[in-house]
Amino acid sequence: MAATELSPHRGAAPEPAGRAVEGSRAVAETVARCRPQVVPAYPISPQTHIVEALSALTRTGELESCQFVNVESEFGAMSLCIGASAAGSRTYTATSSQGLLFMSEALFNAAGLGLPIVLTVANRAVGAPINIWNDQSDSFSQRDSGWIQLYARDNQDACDLHPLAFRLAEELSVPVMVCMDGFVLTHAVERIAVPEQRIVDAFLPPYAPRQVLDPGAPLSIGAMVGPEAFTEVRFIAHGRMQQALVRFPELAQRYGKLVGRPAVELARGYRLEGARTVFVALGSVLGTLEDVVDEARADGMPVGAVELTCFRPFPAERLRTLLAGAENVVVIERAFSTGAAGIVTPELIAALAEPPAVSARSFTVIAGLGGRPITKKALRMLVHDAVAGRVARFSFLGLDRDLLARAGYGRASDDPPGSTAERLLSRLRAPESPR
Amino acid sequence: MTEITHRTASGVKFYQVGSLAVGNRLLPREQRAAQADPQRANTMISGHRACQGCGEVLGARYVLDAAMRATEGKLVVVNATGCLEVVSTPFPESAWRVPWLHSLFGNAPAVASGVAAALKAQGHEEIRVLGQAGDGGTVDIGMGVLSGMCERNDDVLFVCYDNEAYMNTGVQRSGATPAAARTATTPVAPGHPGNRFGQGKDVPAIAMAHRIPYVATASVADLRDLEAKVERAMQFTGARYLHVLVPCPLGWAAPSSQTIRLARLATQCGLFPLFEAEHGELVSVTPIRQQVPVDEYLRAQGRFAHLFADQAAGGRPDLVARIQAEADRNIRVYGLGGQP
Q: Is A72 in a helix, a strand, or coil?
C-alpha cells in the first residue's frame, strides 16, 4: 500500500495553528476570504450562524464588494445564485435539510447550466417528523443533482474544503456542495486555523466565467434541448464531474502545501495495514471511529477505517485500492433509502465488483439519524460484533427495541393505529410498563 | 392624495391624428414608437415558433425594443419557462439579440434579482435587468420570489405577459384566468359554467402594495402606450412591475386576426384598466373614450361561448351581468370614465 494510505490520523498531526472558534464562524471567515461577490441568504438551523457571520463581515467591510441579499426562501436563494453566477460573479450560499430540498429544482438547474456555485450544507435530518438535528439525509437526497459533494470530517476540513470547492467548481464549471454535520460541527467551538487571505488569494484566482451575460456579447443561456442532444449533454456533464477525481487531489496537494497541513483526499485510509474488517464513513463520525479503531488495534483486532470525503463524483478506483485487502466492509451511513438499504453501500459494492473484484462482504449500519449521538460505546460494540461476525447485512445502530415493543411495534407485522411518531414519544415518556 | 391624471403614458391622443398606427408619421419623431425607428434593436427577431396572432410575442418585442432604447442597449433579460421561452429558443436557434437567461418556471424574478446583485457587485449598475414571464410564472408559481424581489426593491423591471391561462401546456386555468372562462381544467359542464367567480389575483395591486417605485398595466392594443410605460419604468431605480394583457388566439378560441381588437375591447369594456402607479399610489389612468358592454368582448371569444348559448342550451345572461358588474366596478374604482 502507498504511504499516504498509512498516513496518521490528521488530528494526531502537530497541533495546528489557529484559535478557538465556532465551526460556522470559521467557515464564514474562510468563505469571506474566497471573496464571493453575491451571497443570498435564508435562515435555517443549523446553518444560520454561517450566513449571520457573512452578513456581519459584509457590513463591517471585511468582505468587500459583496452583495449580501436577504431572500424570501431557499428556492429564491439558489435562484439568485443562478442569476448572479450567470452574470459573472462568484456566488455562495448555505442551507440545511428542508431548505436544501426546497432548493432542489434550482440545484439541478444550476448544475445543468454549469454554474460554479458553492453551497455549504449544514447536514440535518429531513422531516416529517420535523427534526432539526444532524444526519445526512438532506444532502444524500440531492445525490443526483449534478453537484460535487464533499463531506467534512471536522471543522478544519470544513474550512479547508471551501477554497478547494470554489477552485474546483470554477475550473470544471460544476457546482460544489460542502457538507458538514449540523450542530456537531457547525456549533462546535474548537481550535481552527482559518486560512489567511494571502494564501487563499494565491490559491484561488478571480472568477473567470465560461460564459457570461454581457450586453457587449449577447448570448442565450438555458435554451431547450430535445431528444437529439440531451443524452450527450448529460454525458459531457458526467465526464466533467469525473475530472474532479483527478483535479481534486492535485488541488488539495497544492492547497495543503500553502496552508502547511496534510492534503485532504478523495477518500483516505486509516490503519489499513493488515485490516480485515474496515469501517467506511463520512463526516464527523470519523474522529470517534478512528479512536475506536485505535483501541481495537491495541486489543489486537485487525480493523481499520476509510474516510469518504468526496461522494460525488464517486471515487470508485480510490476505494478499490483502499479496500483491496479487506474481507469485511462495514459502511456506517447517516442516511438511508427507505425500502431499500444504504445509499453509499450499493455504490461501494459496485465499485468493488469491477474486475479484478475485491471479494469483501459488505454490511450497512444506519447510524446517527435525527441527531442520535454515535457514541464511542456504540461503535466499540459495533467493532466487536463485526470482528466476531455478528453484524447483519443491514442494521440500525442502537435501535431501541424496547421502546418499539412498548409502543406496540414489537414484531415486524405489528402496525397499531394512529401516528407512529406520537405513539413512540408517548411511550418514551410513560413509566416503563411491567413485563 | 396624489392627483390622478387621465392620459395615456405616451401622451399621444391617436384619435386626434387620425390613426392608431404606432409609427404615425404625423407625430413628431420623438413621439413615434421605438418600432418605427429603423435603428431599433430588433431584440426578438423573426423565425421563432410563436402561433400566428400571438399577443405575447408582440408584447415582448415592443417591451424589449423599448427597454433596449431606454438603456442604450445595456440590458440583460431573464425569462421564465413558458411559451415565450419555448418558441424563442429551440436550440441551437435563438430569437434573442440580447443577453438572455432561462432558468426555471417559478424563479425568473429571483434569477433577475441575482443578475442585478452581480452587476451591482461588479460596479456595472448601468446595465439594467428585465425579467419576464407569462401569467403562470408570475401570478402563480413565481409569486413568492416576485414578492421578494419587490419588497427588497431589487433593481429589476419585471414584465408579466398575461394571456389568462397556462397556454404552453394546453390552456389550463391560472390565478389570472377570468371568471366563466372555459379552460382545460375549468371545462364547461352542466352547473359548471367555466372558471369560478370570486377567485384570482390582482397582481398589479399586490405589486403596488409593496410600494415599489413603479407599477403599470398595458395592452398590446396600445403599443405606443406600452412602450412609453417601459421607458417610464426605466427612469426608476428599484423594483418595477409591468402587467401586459396579451390575447392568445389558441386559448381564447378566437381568430388570430382578432388579437389587437380583443385587447382593445378588454380595455374599452373596463375589464382591463390601464394605469400607472408610483410608490404605491395611482398616478394616471387611461380613460375609456367609448365604453363597450362586456358582451361585445366576451362574444368574440370561444372560451365564453357557453354564456351566450340560447336559454334552453344553458346560456347564462346572469353571468354576463356579473362580469359587467366587475367591469363597472373597475370603471368606478379607477375613475376610467373621466375626461380624456
A: coil
Asked if domains A17-208+227-258 and A268-399 share a fold, the reply is: yes
Which of A126-131's residues contact partners 24+ apart within 8 Å by CB, and which partners?
Answer: A126/A97, A126/A98, A126/A101, A127/A97, A127/A98, A128/A421, A129/A421, A131/A370, A131/A371
Was domain A268-399 assigned CATH 3.40.50.920?
Answer: yes
Which chain A residue shows the shortest CA-CA distance from B148? A72
Instruction: Write the pLDDT tens digit of every residue in A237-269.
Output: 999 999 999 999 999 999 999 999 999 999 999
Class of domain A17-208+227-258: alpha beta
What pLDDT is stored for residue A5 in this prediction?
41
Whether B94 and A81 lie within 8 Å, measured CB to CB: no
Q: What is the CATH architecture of B5-334? A: 3-Layer(aba) Sandwich (3.40)
Q: Where are the domains of chain B?
A: 5-334
Residues in A touching B78 (Cβ below 8 Å): 83
Q: Nearest-CA distance from B42 to chain A in Å?
A: 13
SS (H, E, C) A205-268: CCCCCCCCCCCCCCCEECCECCCCCHHHHHHHHHHHHHCHHHHHHHHHHHHHHHHCCCCCCCEE
Instruction: Categorize the per-residue pLDDT at B34 as very low, low, confident or very high, splitting at 50, 70 and 90.
Output: confident
| Residue-level pLDDT at B24 | 62
Cα distance between residue A75 and residue A78, in whole Å: 6
B 137-156 residues inside an 8 A Cβ radius of A: 144-145, 147-148, 151-152, 154
Q: How confident is the model at residue B39 (pLDDT cuts 50, 70, 90)?
A: confident
Test the B interface: residue of A220, A224, A225, A232 with most B CBs within 10 Å? A220
The alpha carbon torsion through A426, A427, A428, A429 (nearest 10 deg) reads 60
Q: What is the pLDDT of residues B232-246, one digit of tens each?
A: 999 999 999 999 999
CA distances from A198 to A33, A34, A259 (A): 9, 10, 10
Q: What is the pLDDT of residue A4?
A: 41
Domain ranges within chain A, ordered by starting residue: 17-208+227-258, 268-399
Distance from CA of B254 to the nearest CA of A (A): 29
Q: Would you say residue B32 has pLDDT above 80? A: no
pLDDT band at B3 (very low <50, low <70, confident <90, very high): confident
Other beta carbons within 10 Å of A411? 9
The minimum CA-CA distance between A202 and chain B, rounded to whole Å, is 21
The amino acid that residue B18 corresponds to is G
Confidence band for B132, pLDDT divided at 50, 70 and 90: very high
| Over residues B70-94, mean pLDDT | 95
Say yes or no to pLDDT of A287 above 60: yes
- DSSP letters, A80-110, are HHHHHHHTT--BEEEE-HHHHHHTHHHHHHH
